[in-house]
């Protein structure tokens, strides 16, 4: 069952936020395990709130020794496994990527961030060589303005496209709601519209992201089935 791994060398790229946004959306209709391998365990902490979706569980004791077993166990128990990691240098990242059906590389829209994303892509390529199998991935542009399309963003998109790097059509916009989930320890749907502006837009954005991830997984599965036949 699909394992989705969030990777980026840069702290603050939006890994934890986009991992939780996706987990929460998927948990509306399926069982989801989040492997919270960030040493600060932000998703584990978030899940201590009382409105945590019933279909979402968090495992936070993953380390280099047990990462593969933890993912295997989780994949046997729930249809979706989402792994939130910190950095790219550590062996734990390579181990998690080795188990991935899809790697998501969150990246903010600056030149510097895009460069950092390339480091994550190198880790993916390295893993592909080691395991001799393709590792499907996509760059997710995060914290983008829902209104303004900056020149830098356009440039980054073109650069990724020229390099043959796949980028999700959906971007995770900069929204107060995506921060508020963590500050209040609540799922998006439980946030208070009087306290959080544009909540409906954040929810629509989260839904679009989850829909694109699910359809990407389906396409990849269909493609690998054709290849195997
Ligand atoms: N789409 C977003 N909208 C608003 N704030 C965001 C968004 N994505 C991330 N952030 C904020 O940016 C900071 C870093 O995000 P985080 O998800 O923790 O990154 P990472 O896990 O890559 O270190 C956090 O304060 C988070 O609340
Ligand atoms: Mg994080």
UniProtKB/TrEMBL annotation:
Pfam families: VirC1
Name under which the protein is recorded: Chromosome partitioning protein
Organism: Paraburkholderia aspalathi
